[in-house]
């Protein structure tokens, strides 16, 4: 656990229109590259809220006490190692926003992708006096002991980038993240474009047990079935959001299905592994085998520039400003919607080079 202290002076955070949004998701080991994400015209790194939905939750309904964040201990439970580009950018964003908010003390833990450790981490932060928790869940299910402990301690929980299946406004205040189903649909759109509507497709699935994998897969398949009869999904297999597994699984699938001409990866790390697998098969990634993924890491955007990946649907990990702005509004008595959904952009051959410096 790391602990940081900040000045007690409060600085007002940017408005929701400036804060923005783009998720989620999740990645595994990649370089820690900071920077901005592109807008439709190549804008900045701020998240932009696209929509809010679900019943509202207020401080009174949650049963928590009013809190001044400048006199508060805030805990952040990260799900995966910060060797992952997404996670490194997310953690940095939380730290920076805590400083900007004037939070008295910030506790930061990392579950290393282990659910039991995340439960213990949250319980330990509660024992250290955490007044408010921001949690990036390892899985959508299984956090019950930690969330129950927080509820019993009267400590509100805000979840980011993965949605839990627990009860809204009892176990957690809100979910901040991307529309993962829409990401999947947009990945299908991009794959249809780069393949000119004809391809035998392999899907590299993310880790099981979370809504990111489920929704990115469902959205992709729904869009293919509804709009793109020329895209035939011939294989799919879990590669757990990891580059090494993405390479191994892609190698297997290419050997057993030599007619594969396109790969959809649920995140950039698996896509980068697939690039290596396609090369090992004596084929040219981005040409012989088209590749589309989700995240927006610097390595993947560079691969677009290099012609090895065809498109990446962005998932913005910079949740810090939005998380602390949401906390401030919650403690001011405002109603917070169950789901606060951010918008996501796209990198492709037309804009990747110009926006390389803005990837994370």
Automatic annotation (TrEMBL):
Residues 25-40 have a biased composition (Low complexity). It comes from the Bacteria. The keyword Translocase does not apply. Belongs to the bacterial solute-binding protein 2 family. Residues 25-54 are annotated as: Disordered. Residues 75-333 form the Periplasmic binding protein domain. The lineage of its organism: Bacteria, Bacillati, Actinomycetota, Actinomycetes, Pseudonocardiales. Residues 1-24 form the signal peptide. It is found in: Cell envelope. GO terms for molecular function: carbohydrate binding. This is ABC transporter substrate-binding protein. PANTHER family: D-ALLOSE-BINDING PERIPLASMIC PROTEIN-RELATED (PTHR46847), GALACTOFURANOSE-BINDING PROTEIN YTFQ (PTHR46847:SF3). InterPro entries: Peripla_BP_I (IPR028082), SBP_2_dom (IPR025997). The keyword Nucleotide-binding does not apply. Keywords: Signal. GO terms for cellular component: cell envelope.
